[in-house]
Amino acid sequence: MNQKKADPNNKTVAENRKARFSYEVLDTVEAGLALTGTEVKSLRQGQANIQDSYASVEGGEIWLINSYLPEYLQANRFNHEPRRRRKLLLNKREMARLAQSVEREGMTMVPLKIYFNDKGRAKLLLAVAKGKKLHDKRETEKQRDWNREKGRLLKERG
């Protein structure tokens, strides 16, 4: 058997699964994260939470707000603040496009997941999304339940 080993660099660290339920994702952008050394080490241990976080345009830059990266235990006094604002690294054209969609069209920038790419760099998958209303959420729930039930029925009948 020729099994492919999982690349330790290319892995998902944190995922915001609630975002796809609460928002209708219209577009996604891959952004870099400006991190300190202890934040990267904490991420490599697989500890992060972006559940209640969001991105905001301030001063021509885009910031990730309210994300949680726990302190790296071995760093003692050189540690980082767990809930600090982190700058997102995007080119000017992407920043302008995101800022325009947020300001003019009333969209929201929601982080979907943090992962390490092939080169071992920490990246954030940022979504431009529109908030769902309650009836839209119910419709999504119904559709997911039906797909699950359909899979069961097809499996039974062979």
Task: Spell the H/E element sequence.
Answer: EHEHEEEHEEH
Strand order of the largest sheet: 1-6-7-2-5-4-3
What is the CA-based Rg, rounded? 19 Å
CATH class type? Mainly Beta
CATH architect. name = Beta Barrel
User: What's the CATH H-level homologous superfamily?
Assistant: Small protein B
Q: Choose one word for the global shape.
A: globular
Distance between the termini: 28 Å
Largest sheet: 7 strands, antiparallel
Helix content: 25-40%
Classify the oligomer.
single chain
Low-pLDDT runs: none
Mean pLDDT: 82
Helix-and-strand structural type: alpha+beta
Name a few traits of the molecule.
158 residues; 4 helices; seven-stranded antiparallel sheet; alpha+beta; SsrA-binding protein; Small Protein B, Chain: A
What does this structure look like?
The chain is built from 4 helices and 7 strands; from the N terminus they run βαβαβββαββα. The protein is an alpha+beta fold. The chain has one domain (12-132): Small Protein B, Chain: A. It has a 7-stranded antiparallel beta sheet with strand order 1-6-7-2-5-4-3. A hairpin with a 5-residue loop joins β6 (108-116) and β7 (122-131). The two termini are 28 Å apart. The relative contact order is 0.23. The model has no long low-confidence stretch (mean pLDDT 82).
